[in-house]
Amino acid sequence: MQLSPKIENFVLHCGEMGSRWGFNRTIGQMVGLLVINEKPLTANEIAEALKISRGNVSMGIKELQSWQLVKVHHIPGDRKEYYSPNGSIWDLANRVFEERRKREIDPTLTLLRDQILDSANSPEEKYAQEQMQSIHDLLETVTKWSAELQRLTPEQLQSLMKLGSSVSKVIDLKDKLLRKS
Fold it and tell me: Which Gene3D superfamilies does the annotation name (predicted)?
């Protein structure tokens, strides 16, 4: 499978972005390749397109399945497995956000809760606990907010995003009205 320069450029960029999404470069490339292909691809097609080993593809597919980002297709009469994205771009983004929350935010919140519940033994620990409480509260707020965003339909989320700076104007107006009362 030969990629056009435009598609190859996109796939390579997805690989570079992979580390920012919580994947390695190869898995990022695999996501990019699967997302922009209209038809499901076999492991051999993925290996050929990305110029990587079949074993590397197998490990990548397992990782993508653990993130629930790919689904397997079987074609009657064909023994090969075919892979495609497990849902729309919005579905994939939600799964990445959810998995990163589980892998990164939840353990941090657990650690912070444990540290905050312990009694402080010194003024330094008291100050540290106050800072940890602030971090905890911020992460809790962001987690609740992101959970609310994940409940929105893609259309609702796009509408919210289009509001952009208008949201801050509404908040400023609300603050002004509350100050006057």
Answer: Winged helix-like DNA-binding domain superfamily/Winged helix DNA-binding domain
